[in-house]
Design brief:
With 226 residues, the chain is α/β, with parallel strands linked by helices. The chain is 35% helix and 25% strand. The strands form 3 sheets. A 7-stranded mixed sheet has the order 5-4-1-6-10-7-11, sandwiched between helices. The chain binds cytidine-5'-triphosphate and the ligand C[C@](O)(CO)[C@H](O)COP(=O)(O)O. Its EC number is 2.7.7.60.
Length: 226
């Protein structure tokens, strides 16, 4: 059984949320979004967490860690200007020579089901990668320069996190000298020449991006509590 690591990226500014406080620190059902996310991964036996924060984010994190995790050591790495750079900084801080599986997860996906995380660790151990996704419920179109065109919906997947990889693969991919234009980790690993293995995500695993996502997340949490 490999060692489990989770990189929780929480170094974004949340520009699309339009809130003064970065969205990962906003309250969701009585505790910050980031706390929900961390609690999920902390509930996994032997999962080592690396939390990625911006310098500004560290000031928000300090009182939160004291209130919610007074007895738990959570290592913090400073993020970069992009998600790609934030993940790269976290991976640069890692040095392991035992078999290791690394899950990378957006701090702003607090409702990720535990079984989705656990399944991704198991599948990545077997196939090298496990990238969570769901089917699109909407029709989809491809926008080109002069027109737009219907795509066959069943050929499209909506990609989520966690995105989970064998350490050797992830390390090699993130060591390559890319121009930083990736929106997720699967794209980095794919650009390094590896095939991506998709696994089932969850519609509940929404990414808190704009204010209505926070509203939806509140309601989903209330429903699951009753
Ligand atoms: N430089 C960055 C940018 C993003 N993230 C993290 O990556 C996840 C997904 O990014 P996104 O939802 O786009 O967050 P923001 O970049 O904060 O939002 P926006 O694009 O609206 O500014 C978030 O948990 C975010 O904190 C990060 O660690 N470092
Ligand atoms: C990683 C991700 O959550 C997968 O859907 C997504 O690509 C992040 O994109 P963003 O532009 O940083 O929100």
């Amino acid at each position: 059984m490999s060692q489990k690591i989770a990189v929780i990226v929480a170094s974004g500014t949340g520009s699309r949320m339009g809130s003064e406080i970065p969205k990962q620190f906003l309250p969701l059902n009585g505790k910050p979004v980031l706390v929900h996310t961390l609690e999920k991964f902390l509930s996994i036996h032997d999962c080592h967490i690396i939390l990625v924060l911006s310098e500004a984010g560290k000031a928000y994190w300090q009182p939160i860690s004291e209130q919610f995790f007074p007895d738990t050591y959570i290592p913090v790495i400073t993020g970069g200007d992009t998600r790609y750079q934030s993940v790269k900084n976290a991976l640069n801080s890692l040095d392991t020579d035992v078999p290791t599986i690394v899950a990378i997860h957006d701090a702003v996906r607090p409702l990720v089901p535990l079984n989705v995380i656990l399944n991704a660790y198991v599948v990545a151990e077997q196939f090298g990668s496990a990238v969570t996704c769901v089917d699109s419920k909407d029709s989809v179109r491809l926008i080109t320069e002069d027109r737009n065109q219907a795509l066959e919906r069943k050929k499209v997947k909506l990609i989520q996190t966690p995105q989970t990889f064998q350490w050797d693969i992830l390390k090699k991919a993130y060591e390559l000298p890319y121009i930083d234009s990736f929106t997720d980790d699967a794209s980095v690993v794919e650009a390094a020449g590896y095939t991506i293995h998709l696994v089932e995500g969850s519609y509940a695993n929404l990414k808190i991006t704009t204010p209505e996502d926070l509203f939806l997340a509140e309601h989903l949490l209330h429903e699951s509590a009753h």
